[in-house]
Amino acid sequence: MRDVAIVAFGQSDHVRDSAETSEVEMLMPVLHDVLAQTGLAARDIGFTCSGSSDYLAGRAFSFTMALDGVGAWPPISESHVEMDGAWALYEAWVKLLTGEAETALVYSYGKSSPGSVRDVLTRQLDPYYAAPLWPDAVALAALQAQALIDAGLTDPQELAGIAARSRAAAATHPHAQLRGEVPMGETLVAPLRTGDCPPIGDGAAAVVLAAGDTARRLTDRPAWIRGLDHRIEAHALGVRDLTDSPSTRLAAERAGAFERPVDTAELHAPFTSQEVVLRRALRLDAPDGTVCVNPSGGALAANPVMATGLIRLGEAAARIQRGASDRALAHATSGPCLQHNLVAVLEGE
User: Fold this and answer.
1) Nearest to 224 by CA among 9, 38, 5
2) d(CA 317, CA 225)
3) What is the pLDDT of residue 289?
4) What global pTM score does this model have?
5) What pLDDT was estimated at residue 290?
6) Are 325 and 131 in contact (CB under 8 A)?
7) Burial of 278 (0-12, 13-18, 19+ CB in 10 A)
8) What's residue 286's pLDDT?
């Protein structure tokens, strides 16, 4: 395969409410940032791919408005996925592997503030049996957390420790929405408390991909994508073991994550209980604690829906680029209770 790397990553400040800023206005500074990091102009990009959700925006084909921030004239090679931007990155990666482009711009954004994101996410459920009951994302995550507790795989104290560690890690992060000490708060949906759940907020992210010598020309230390795979679980929650994530394990195996140890793992775990599931599936619970999990604070520090997964890939790549990591794992998820999972392995040279 061709060598493909992430050569630039940028993100917006993640805020509770960006009512005074449109999606385009939120996105444009991020796009300008990643292009400036590489010295590329929009006309130098061979392929552009985005990830977002019309359900969050409340209007059909809302992603076409974001193209105003990219600049689609003269005509560009462009695509869109109605998913987290991590899957847009997957599409762009495949495009570069085929040799159809040398560079790619990938971006994603989400504004959860205008409505009830808990209600919006119920539309991901099976439309015949589950969706009509309107079980929201927090309620379903609580079912998963209770299953883990009942199985003896975690307890409320461990979950509180995950929340504290994640937000402490984000204390100096310039873009995080929640930083430092955050109280666990009252029970939201038992056994999950407010502190076990991600913040509701708005944000955007973008990365630039490049192949081979082009990547080496654009940055001193490319974050090479050594493996990338995604797998999905059954749609019906009742036929799944919510304490395990076989799709994450399989994606990691196919991406080569188990071939050699990683030193960093950026996990897309919006709820503390989901980090427990992912650490077990990805074999990250090493007794020596050599793997640094979510040094950025993860989704518990900032969770712009449809961009959080792409941010995990970008954060892992950024650590490699600045020499803080040599081999990192990045994970993204979509759907209720870790239904669909993507795993990437990134390395420096």
Assistant:
1) 5
2) 9
3) 66
4) 0.97
5) 85
6) no
7) buried
8) 65
Are the beta carbons of 108 and 307 closer than 8 angstroms? yes
Rounded-to-integer distance, Cα 86 and Cα 108, Å? 8
Structural tokens at position 77? 């090679």
What pLDDT score was predicted for residue 172? 95
Q: How far apart are CA 52 and CA 198, in angstroms?
A: 19
CB 321 within 8 A of CB 221: yes
For residue 288, what pLDDT is reported?
Answer: 58
| Residue ranges of the chain with per-residue pLDDT less than 70 | 286-289
> Edge-to-edge strand order for the sheet containing 292-293?
78-81, 47-51, 103-111, 202-211, 4-11, 223-232, 340-347, 327-334, 264-266, 292-293
Question: Tokens representing 325?
Answer: 């990591």
pLDDT, position 185: 95
Residue type, 254: R
What is the distance in angstroms between the CA of the first residue and the CA of the last residue of the chain?
Answer: 17
CB 145 within 8 Å of CB 242: no
The two beta strands, 202-211 and 103-111, are antiparallel
Tell me what pLDDT residue 69 has: 80
